[in-house]
Design brief:
The protein has one domain: Ribonuclease Z/Hydroxyacylglutathione hydrolase-like (Metallo-beta-lactamase, Chain A). 19% of the residues lie in helices and 27% in strands. The model has no long low-confidence stretch (mean pLDDT 96). A hairpin with a 2-residue loop joins strand 7 and strand 8. A seven-stranded mixed sheet has the order 6-5-4-3-2-1-14. The chain has a seven-stranded mixed sheet with strand order 7-8-9-10-11-12-13. It has six helices and 14 strands. It has 259 residues and is α/β, with parallel strands linked by helices.
Amino acid sequence: MKLLCLGTGAADWDPRLASADPSFRRLTSALINRELMIDCGPCVHEFAETFGYEELYRDVTEIIVTHSHGDHFNADAVARVAKEAASPVTVYGDPVIGTLLPLSEKLRFVPLTLFVPTAVGKYTVTALPANHSTAYPEEQPLHYVIVDAEEKTMFWGCDGAWLFNQTYHHIRKLKFDAMVFDCTVGDLENDFRSFEHNNIRMIDELLKSLIGWHHILKEDGQVYANHMARTLHTDHATLKARLAPLGVIPMHDNMEITV
C-alpha cells in the first residue's frame, strides 16, 4: 500500500496559495496506490500542478470522504477528478455527502454503515464514528480502517478528537501497519478546538493505551500525525523533532509512504 499525501494541513489558510515547502500544508487529502482517494478538497489539482504530476487522478476509481467540511470535501473538485479519471468514480461516506454531489454517469455515491466492513474497489473499508461535527446535525463524521489485498491495515483518524468509546472498542481488537491521527492543535492546551481535534498531548495519551496496553500496532508498524494547522504548529523540521520521542512521524505534502 503506497500512500501519497496530497495535503496535511487544516482549514486555517487560503487554498488558492501554492508552495513546495514541507511546512506549507495544503488541506488534508491522500491517495492510496493512485486509485483510492481519502477526501477530495479544493487543493488536489493545485497539488498535482505544483509537484508536476501528470494525470495523477487518471486511475482513481473510489473516493472515501470523512465529512463535509470544505477543507475535506469539495463537490467541484470531486467532479473534476471523476472527469479526469479513466473509469467511473464511486464516492463513499455518510449519507449527507450523497446529497451534495453532482451525480452523473461517471460519478455515483454509496452510503456507508458504521462498523460494517465494505468492499471499496480492491480494499475493505470500515467506517467508524469520529469525535467531530459539521453544519449538518444528521451527519456523522468518519474515521476509517482500510485493508488492502495483502492484509496491510491502516487507521485513518482525521478529523477528530479523543476517540469515541465504540470506535476504541472496535480498533483495539485489530493490528495496524499504520495509524494516522489528527494533530490539529499542536502543543496548545486548554484550547476550544480540542473538543473535536487532538493536540500532541492527547495523541501521546491515546498511544500509551492503544499501543502500550492493547499492542494494536504491528511490530514494524508506524504512527503518523496529520491535519496540522499551520497557524498552530512550528515548521516541519521542529515538529518532526518534537514528535520523535513519541514514535510519531509528521506527514507533509508530497510525502509518499509505503505501508
